[in-house]
Amino acid sequence: MASSKVDKGRRRFLVAATSVVGAIGTAAMATPFVMSLTPSARALAAGAPVEVNISKIEAGQQLRVIWRGKPIWVVNRTPDMIAKLPSVAPKLKDPDSEVESQQPAYAQNIHRAIKEQYLVLIGICTHLGCSPTYRPELAPADLGADWPGGWYCPCHGSRFDMAGHVMKGSPAGKNLEVPPYYYKNDTTILVGESKEVA
Question: Which residues are catalytically annotated?
Answer without folding.
Answer: 156
